[in-house]
């Protein structure tokens, strides 16, 4: 049998974790997580990592595997995940299961990324100053002008991601999105992508309920414990930014909850927009699973 990797993807809160565990048990596979935030061991509640019971059901990789102060990237994930997958296939696995909602990381793994240019530190410092002094909206407008495709697909509420995309555009004269659509990298296995979706209103209800559940399970305390790292890229994440604003006295807790729910819904919408361009995905209604 040819070596095969099944990638289970979909928007946040759609039900990827339960379905990936079920598929992993069917094939005797671990679950290889492809989530740009669940890798951080200091971030559990706000990233909705699998529960202890789910983690005990099958072996999971890239869950709580790195620290928030590690400089992690899609390119690094590509190298580390490819090494793991090759090792698992060499151990005798015929089918492996990967699951996650980070489209850029999934693209990096499945197709490879061109080498990004070296960071121009003067340019980065200049953009960082603009981000602090003018806010992310200023950078977003430039990105929309230079690279509409990236503007439509990345988390434009995440200042660091907007900054990085704009930085590449300005440094190279080439759209950041062009790096995501490079020819497929050579892979020694076949890749099948399975996308999960739900009715929009049902998905939004699940998102709203998940946010309330995070609050019940200690999100505020988790955010407080990360105050020293709040300016790191890992913490520029929905759920954490809003609670930091609340702790700073800028907004009320009720407003923070409303914003987390709204921003998470917006993020789910952008995730679906990102994947609609990929005709290789086989879509399944998660409500019927």
List descriptors.
six-stranded parallel β-sheet; 3 domains; about 10% strand; 12 helices; alpha/beta; about 290 residues; Rossmann fold; Helix Hairpins
Question: Would you mind describing this structure in some detail?
Answer:
- The structure is a single chain.
- With 289 residues, the protein is α/β, with parallel strands linked by helices.
- Helix content is 50%, strand content 10%.
- The chain has 3 domains: 4-114 and 185-198 and 275-288, P-loop containing nucleotide triphosphate hydrolases (Rossmann fold, 3-Layer(aba) Sandwich), CATH 3.40.50.300; 121-179, Histone, subunit A; 201-268, Crystal structure of tRNA isopentenylpyrophosphate transferase (bh2366) domain (Helix Hairpins, Orthogonal Bundle), CATH 1.10.287.890.
- The two termini are 27 Å apart.
- What value does the average pLDDT take? 91
Number of strands: 6
Q: Helices and strands, in N-to-C order?
A: EHEHEHEHHHHHEHHHHE
Termini, distance in Å? Answer: 27 Å
Please mark out the parts with pLDDT under 50 across 5 or more consecutive residues, or reply none.
Answer: none
**How does the overall form come out from the CA principal axes?**
globular
Number of domains: 3
- Strand order across the largest sheet: 3-2-4-1-5-6
Tell me about the largest β-sheet. 6 strands, parallel
Radius of gyration: 19 Å
The amount of helix comes to: 40-55%
> What is the assigned CATH homologous superfamily of the largest domain?
P-loop containing nucleotide triphosphate hydrolases
């Amino acid at each position: 049998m040819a070596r095969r990797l099944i990638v289970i993807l979909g928007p946040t809160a759609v039900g990827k974790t339960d379905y990936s565990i079920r598929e992993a048990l069917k094939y005797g596979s671990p679950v290889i997580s492809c989530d740009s935030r669940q890798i951080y061991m200091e971030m559990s509640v706000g990233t909705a990592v699998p529960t202890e019971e789910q983690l005990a059901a099958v072996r999971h990789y890239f869950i709580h595997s790195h620290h928030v102060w590690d400089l992690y990237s899609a390119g690094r994930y590509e190298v580390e995940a490819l090494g793991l997958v090759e090792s698992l296939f060499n151990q005798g696995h015929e089918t492996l299961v990967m699951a996650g909602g980070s489209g850029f990381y999934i693209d990096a793994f499945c197709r490879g990324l061109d080498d990004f240019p070296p960071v121009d530190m003067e340019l980065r410092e200049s953009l960082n100053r603009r981000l602090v002094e003018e806010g992310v909206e200023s950078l977003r407008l430039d990105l929309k002008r230079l690279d509409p495709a990236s503007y439509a697909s990345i988390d434009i509420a995440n200042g660091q991601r907007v900054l990085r995309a704009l930085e590449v555009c300005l440094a190279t004269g080439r759209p950041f999105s062009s790096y995501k659509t490079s020819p497929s990298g050579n892979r020694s296995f076949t890749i099948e992508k399975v996308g999960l979706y739900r009715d929009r209103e049902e998905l939004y209800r699940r998102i709203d309920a998940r946010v309330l559940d995070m609050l019940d399970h200690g999100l505020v305390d988790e955010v407080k414990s990360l105050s020293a790292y709040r300016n790191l890229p890992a913490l520029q994440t929905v759920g954490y930014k809003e609670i930091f604003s609340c702790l700073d006295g800028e907004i009320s807790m009720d407003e923070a909850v409303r914003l987390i729910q709204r921003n998470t819904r917006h993020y789910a919408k952008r995730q679906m927009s990102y994947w609609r361009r990929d005709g290789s995905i086989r879509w399944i209604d998660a409500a019927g699973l």
